[in-house]
Prior knowledge:
heterodimer, A: 792 residues, alpha+beta, Aldehyde Oxidoreductase, domain 3, Aldehyde Oxidoreductase, domain 4, 3 domains, 7-stranded mixed β-sheet, 29% helix, globular, B: 261 residues, Uridine Diphospho-n-acetylenolpyruvylglucosamine Reductase, domain 2, Enolase-like, domain 1, 5-stranded antiparallel β-sheet, 4-stranded antiparallel β-sheet, 12 helices, 14 strands
Amino acid sequence: MASLVGSRVERKEDTRFLQGKGRYTADINIANQTYAVFVRSPHARAKIKSVDTSKALKSSGVVGVLTGKEIAEDKIGGLIAGWAIRSEDGSEMKVPANPPLAKDVANFVGEPVAVVFAETLDEAKEGAEKVKVDYKVLKAVVDPAEAMKSDAIHDGVDKNLCYDWLLGDRKAVDEAFAKADKIIKVDLINNRLVPNAMEPRACVVDYNTASEEITLYTTSQNPHLSRLVMSAFGGVAPENKLRVVAPDVGGGFGSKINVYNEEIVCSWASKKIERPIKWVAERTESFLTDTHGRDHVTHAELAVTNDGKFLGFKNETIANLGAYARVFGTVTPTYLFGPCATGVYVIPAAYSNVKAVYTNTAPVDAYRGAGRPEATYTIERLVEKAALELGIDKTEIRMKNFPTQFPFKQTLVHTVDSGDYVAGLEKAKQMADYKGFEARRKKSEANGKLRGIGVSSYFEACGIAPSAAVMSLGCGVGLWESAEVRFNPTGQISVFTGAHSHGQSHDTTFAQIAADELGVPMENIDVVHGDTDKGTFGMGTYGSRSLTVGGIAIVNACKKIVAKGKRVAAKMLEVNEDEIEFKDGEFVALKSNKKKTIGEVAFACYLPGQRDEMKSPIPEGDEPGLIESSFFDPANFSFPAGSHICEVEIDPDTGNVKVEKYTAVDDFGRIVNPMIVEGQVHGGIAQGIGQALHENTQYDETGQLMTASYMDYTMPRADNFPEFNLGFTCTHATSNPLGVKGCGEAGAIASPPTVMNAVIDALGGQEISMPATAEKVWKACKAMKKSNAKAA
Amino acid sequence: MKSFNYHAPKDVKDASKLASSNSAFLAGGMTTIPSMKLGLASYKDVIDIKNIKKLSGIKVSGKSVTIGATTKHAEVAASKDVKKAIPALAKLAGNIGDAQVRNRGTIGGSISNNDPSACYPSACMALNAVIHTNKRKIDADKFFTGMFETALKSGELVEAVEFEIPEKADYQKHPNPASRYAIIGVFVAKHKKDVNVAVTGAKSCVYIDQDLSKKLSSNFSVSAIEGMEVKSSGMNSDMHASAEYRANLVSLYAKKAVEAC
Ligand SMILES: Cc1cc2nc3c(=O)[nH]c(=O)nc-3n(C[C@H](O)[C@H](O)[C@H](O)COP(=O)(O)OP(=O)(O)OC[C@H]3O[C@@H](n4cnc5c(N)ncnc54)[C@H](O)[C@@H]3O)c2cc1C
């Protein structure tokens, strides 16, 4: 039987998605439901002097109004920061309370202050307008670079500083810098991004007054974790009385990891008002309150020799957490960022120092790539600048500093198990016709255009987050994944996974790997996820972990099925277990060539024995049934890597940047479904080009979000991209039995520096910040013209 | 959105009877519906004019092209007649917003709304358009009176827009990358006697750039306006573009438009 792993199997889920048959949270309606509308702070920072709900309560159709006072009285816990980070001086990070409904003070525009439930959505909106909140507006802290010099916005958080974290050895770095021929320096801003999942957040809550069970349908990337957090920290209900279902979810990109205010409030309130509740975010609410991404201010330096060897690296970053520390908010700018900041290079001395600050803006959390795009942007800007300043070809300087041996033990944290960075860059050069660039540049010039080429080589640590690796860093919580493989008596198989698909195509890829392991057709397999009542506890999907962690749990559970199947088949065929070989879905007795299919074995496991049979096929010590589960906690992260090359053409008259060519060569280890992987890479590159050229989240100085709709926030569109030219190299990961590496974030990690390096190349090395919008580029072109004129 | 009474009259008379100070005509709804949803506007009566047959369609006579108020952008863009008589107008319509907007948005809605970055007002100005309403005929230069403001009186309905066919014309636009409205749009029309350069997006309301128009009237060529500086004073400056950048784009796109004529 041909292996399904490695083939371009069409996506199972497309049938329902393309026919409009997806079933999203907003599609779910419960009889007798009420509609929730949240009253949100219009101010970035304000004392809440009073909340008057009396008029709202009298408003037509209003069923209930709740505020921060009631939720505090009921001792419902707030939102949490998932990872404890310690400062360089040993002190614990400072995390302010984040109540689900603000009671005394509101800290960002859009923070919920009260909620109105009514019979219809219109009535809930009318009611919400009648809630009178008396605010005393305070001066907002908006700019992360200024936050440490501004008023403290949270009690007990001096200088708005959550932590001042160090990874690496400052002294070693100083020594390395003292030996350098040249120090390359960059000042970077990693722009804030609004994730913009196509489906806005939503929840539907159904409280069963008889069983006292709450069912929460929600747009979550990790329903089991949501239940855990709501139960353990929120105190909404014990875990066994809380069912969380994340049905079809239309994109997450990290923004749907968190358990949000609205889910906690509606779950708590459904019990209080004894009515089902439905809440669906409007797009502006998404802009204001979904966790945002990135937002770093970085100064970084690279110590180099004249012939282009790297000696040392330092990275001083201010990371904006926004108003509160959320689930991955504190770990994204530290352990997901700092260790990756030395990139794919041998750099003997390095440190990353990160100061995380609070501001009166929407909370910032993991967003596709989470920390690794920021790291890659930092090192790849430095490397490109080093090439320019040293007069060395940009690919050559990279080659010069790549590791030649794997495992590659980096100076900071990671030991990268496998890779071949040289092969990746060579292939990218070839596919991009790197050699032919000068001719293309001349041709553009003849047309009055500026052409630039940019390279970036990246690696990333994903498959978040192996306990062994993260525990050794002292930051707690390892994240394994679970699977259960359940044979039904008649041979169909349900594969339960703790991972969650919201665009990743698990229905297809997980079925491919299980089908290969079990030797059955894919059609016999259903992948089940997204419901805490189905399957075992699991951690969900983010950090390119589904396949490398969750997929392996499936493989391991399948292997257990086969092992049990062997024992049963041996008994059925009356041979020793070691005489049985499992191949293509059949247990074969090697000597006699007698066989039992896995379906027959499964049937026997459930309905042991037939008429006239004297012995049960269930071996002694085994139990009936054919269900196996597995929890997989890999020994290490997986480390995809690659090189991307981009060419842009700039019209100096308008500053318009056109991405002319984009080549990506990635090493994702073994590839389960090339078509799906290509889709993941396309999406990632699109988001990265969005960050580099288009997406420009802007708050004004009072903390109002200026770009809170698609009229003002530029999402990249298909006509912003050329056809992507994709290639792959392959070195197998050693930390999992399939040899696979994560592929979900790589595109978004590698592309921003690739594009920016190309833009800056076209501008003759003139630095410019992301996003490189037309006006910014136009100004740079003008400056370039001026300096060229002077030089002449 | 606040609830409202929905009407769908079949003729202009009924529509105007229904109109009051607390009503809105609904054409493509591309502006009206979002502003109602966002709570920026609310009306007691919404009068849908799309069922009024007379308001839709394109007529070309020897001297002019007349487009009915509810004619969609996509229809203007695809019209063979418009492409033949005033290709620049079809081009303008074909580059408005995105496909969804072009398949709903209408010329009457566009000019009645008079968004400072809408495209059609510049065509009206450059092509000496006459706006036909149910009450009177208004010249374009009297019609667009300010930001989101027109000469229309309460309840007055645009029935059609009549454009003068020029000798040559072109429209050039620098789209806002987010909304794809015009950051700057320049409509250049060469008529028998003179040349009009109408600019949208730059200021609070569409206008004719007199300097550029004058220069081009005496010598219709790129060289006539080469090196001419467009002043940025009075131009919009916002997060999408500074006044200085807009001024640069006006002179750049004026040249491009002349070149394309
Ligand atoms: C995303 C997006 C992008 C856009 N991009 C562009 C662009 O690039 N260029 C551009 O020019 N425009 C653009 N538009 C505007 C769009 O093309 C429409 O022209 C505009 O929204 C109004 O037309 P409508 O038919 O939808 O009018 P409606 O929204 O129905 O009405 C708008 C206003 O005009 C009034 N009205 C409508 N018809 C009449 C009439 N016959 N008489 C009197 N009053 C009337 C209504 O009462 C209302 O006040 C964009 C819109 C969107 C949403």
